[in-house]
Amino acid sequence: MASIFSKIASKDIPGYFLAENDEFFAILDINPLAKGHTLIIPKLEVDYIFDLPADYLGRYFMFSQNVAKAMGNVLDCERIGVAVIGLEVPHAHIHLVPINNVSDIDFSLPKKTFTVDEMKAVQSDIKSKMVI
Question: C-alpha distances in angstroms, 8 versus 36, 54, 103, 104, 111?
Answer without folding.
Answer: 18, 25, 29, 27, 21
